[in-house]
Design a protein that fits this description.
The protein has about 210 residues and is an alpha/beta fold. About 35% of the residues lie in helices and about 30% in strands. The protein has helices spanning about 10-20, 25-45, 80-90, 140-150, 165-175, 200-205; strands spanning about 5, 50-55, 60-65, 70-80, 95-105, 110-115, 125-130, 135, 155-160, 160, 180, 185, 185-190, 195. The chain has a 7-stranded mixed sheet, sandwiched between helices. A 3-stranded parallel sheet has the order 8-10-12. A two-stranded antiparallel sheet has the order 2-3. The protein is globular, with a radius of gyration of 18 Å. The mean pLDDT is about 95. The structure holds uracil. Uracil binds near residues 135 and 200. Uracil (URA) binds near residues 133, 135 and 200.
């Protein structure tokens, strides 16, 4: 699959396995998701441009490299995206944040938008869309469709787990959007859950259900 980055670092894989466990508590699930998001951000931001600035060390003046974190927007697909967002913000604290509220129609499994709030000047920004589960891909496609209307510089999609069906749907609709994930699982079940998966990510993050 082109334009799909499976982050196979041992720390990422180890933490993902702990999150899959049925008996992982809400507390440890949320903590592990935050840690995974931090680790994944390292790969997701690898190609961000750097600029030179002057910096005065205790000994002399030199040149250092910095990235412009404020040009980045993390767009969280509510509500489960929030669990990834916190970890990413802890390593890129200057990033701006947008939210898209989408719910999945239980009958058609299509995405219905109920909330959309973005920072200004989106044409100058690089967007990272976050949602822990790329299942049918319908929400991801709807989010990217909507964000492309704003004309951003670039869009990436970050999830924790993907189903092959979701990867195919997103890639077919938006082949220019790279997908970053910790794993691609076997398949979707008839309710749109990823198998073997980790269950309902939102419920596990927030302790609902
Ligand atoms: N959303 C989830 O939270 N879990 C899945 O398995 C699929 C979609």
């Amino acid at each position: 699959m082109s334009n799909v980055h499976v982050i196979d670092h041992p720390l990422v894989q180890h933490k993902l396995t702990l999150m899959r466990r049925r008996d992982a508590s809400t507390n440890s699930f949320r903590r592990l998701l935050g840690e995974l998001a931090m680790l994944m951000t390292y790969e997701v931001t690898r190609d961000l441009p750097l600029q030179d600035i002057e910096v005065e060390t205790p000994l002399e003046l030199t040149t250092g490299k910095v990235m412009d974190g404020k040009k980045l927007v993390f767009v969280s697909i509510l509500r489960a995206g929030t669990g990834i967002l916190d970890g990413m913000l802890s390593v890129v604290p200057g990033a701006r944040v947008g939210h898209i509220g989408l719910y999945r129609d239980p009958k058609t499994l299509t995405a219905v938008e109920y909330y959309f709030k973005m920072p200004g000047e989106m044409q100058e920004r690089d967007i990272v869309v976050v949602d822990p589960m790329l299942a049918t891909g319908n929400s991801a496609v709807a989010a990217v469709d909507r964000l492309k209307e704003l004309g951003p510089k670039s869009i990436k999609f970050v999830c924790l787990l993907a189903a092959p069906e979701g990867v195919a749907t997103l890639q077919q609709a938006h082949p220019d959007v790279p997908i970053y994930t910790a794993a691609i699982d076997r398949e979707l079940d008839s309710h749109g859950y990823i198998l073997p998966g980790l269950g309902d990510a939102g419920d596990r993050i927030f302790g609902t259900q």
